[in-house]
Design a protein that fits this description.
heterodimer, A: mainly beta, 4-stranded antiparallel sheet, about 0% helix, globular, B: 7-stranded mixed sheet, 11 strands
Chain lengths: ~110, ~110
């Protein structure tokens, strides 16, 4: 069963628009961790954020913000005032007690000038 | 600080040949992970180690794949014999104390089997 669902396969926006990438997860564990990674065209996986299941505070880092809601099992990612350099594939991932990451299929974001 | 280092970055090999991918984790990290990325299957965990001991290898596709971690600073993923369907990007990643801390990925090894 898919543990992490990123329903948006591709998103295209014009520069300076805000964009939200959705992530819905599934777990029976009470302790778990959620992650977002960015994969730019060059191919590396860049860590963006880690959140544990006991911390539902939203987080903002510059133009990036994350909304964690346990009630809906969602961990959404918003980019404010998007830029061309934000074009990448973004992965949401879940880790349960087994320590390994289960990745979603990714959302490909294209930001055009 | 040096990140996770993988080699080779790119490899093209012929079907039937042995392929060895190498990984040097971040110093001090006690967990090491091997992932494979393909268009069809996305990012899949192949195997992970804790303190050089394999913990879960259920993701290793078949007996043609093997992974070792002889010491805390080196791991290999070997495919023998290689097949065209093994073509993928193979990522190595490491972390300290598992999920309680961030998992850092290497730049990946891009394997093409022709």
């Amino acid at each position: 069963a898919q543990k992490v669902t990123q329903a948006q396969t591709e998103i295209s926006v014009v520069e300076k628009e805000d964009v939200t990438l959705d992530c819905v997860y599934e777990t029976r564990d009470t302790t778990y961790y959620l992650f977002w990674y960015k994969q730019p065209p060059s191919g590396e996986l860049v860590f963006l954020i880690r959140r544990n299941s006991f911390d539902e505070q939203n987080e903002i880092s510059g133009r990036y913000s994350w909304n964690f809601q346990k009630s809906t099992s969602s961990f959404n990612f918003t980019i404010t005032a998007s830029q061309v350099v934000d074009s990448a594939v973004y992965f949401c991932a879940l880790s349960e007690a087994g320590y390994a990451l289960n990745f979603g299929k990714g959302t490909s974001l294209l930001v055009t000038p | 600080d040096a990140g996770v280092i993988q080699s080779p970055r790119h490899e093209v090999t012929e079907m039937g040949q042995e392929v060895t991918l190498r990984c040097k984790p971040i110093s001090g990290h006690d967990y090491l992970f091997w992932y494979r990325q393909t268009m069809m299957r996305g990012l899949e965990l192949l195997i992970y180690f804790n303190n050089n001991v394999p913990i879960d290898d259920s993701g290793m596709p078949e007996d043609r794949f093997s992974a070792k971690m002889p010491n805390a600073s080196f791991s290999t993923l070997k495919i023998q014999p290689s097949e065209p369907r093994d073509s993928a990007v193979y990522f190595c990643a490491s972390s300290f104390a598992g999920m309680r801390n961030t998992i850092y990925f290497g730049e990946g090894s891009w394997l093409t089997v022709v």
